[in-house]
Here is the input.
Amino acid sequence: MQEVAGATYRLGRKRHNFYVVVDRGAATVVDAGGSAELSILERALERLSMTLEHVEAILITHSHTDHVGFAGAAERRGVSVKAHEDEAELLRDRSKASQIGMGDVPLWNPKVWLFLTEMIRAGAHKGYPVQNVETVGDGEPLDLPGRPRIVACPGHTVGHAAYVFEDRGVLFSGDALVTTGLIGGGAGPQLLRPVFHHDPDLARESLNRFASLGTTLLLPGHGDPWRGPIADAVSLAAR
Here is the structure.
């Protein structure tokens, strides 16, 4: 567990992240890692003198298995799960969710195997449904710890969304804007390679949704935190 800002914590593994935001004795979780990672969240909460009962919601950025992982298990234990209205059905019916296949990535690249190995250990190869997803719309402020607001940014998936915590100056960007290329491309703000996107052109266009935000800390689904005006991160990624 890494505290990346005041009462804001990064969890997960080397190549993928999920997050906990704490506010006045309650928590909002952003994304749900792989299916084997609920214990990581529970251990982190224990260190914060909290339990799952203190989690008011898990906010899902998109329906890929390395972001939805333990959401269904947490839901069965009473945790609310929320997602953008255009993505929610893909969480309920995992057969409809697009995933990256083995034939879609360059298997000759050693970085691919490092990434795939980590994903398997996290349980990201197993997709479990979230039966009762609560839908939220673009721009909607949520009455949750940290006061997040949803920012629709489709392209990586059909209903991908980011979450901005304006009082903290933080943007949780999911896979719409990352800081590592996963299978190459170096570090720093960037788009994932086109093979990872449902609609690469739309994913690039959606970066414009971020440029006007006043955030100064980017927390992506993959890669390290990036500090600075979000407009600068968008400029770097759009090159």
Notes: DSSP finds eight helices and 14 strands in the chain. The radius of gyration is 16 Å.
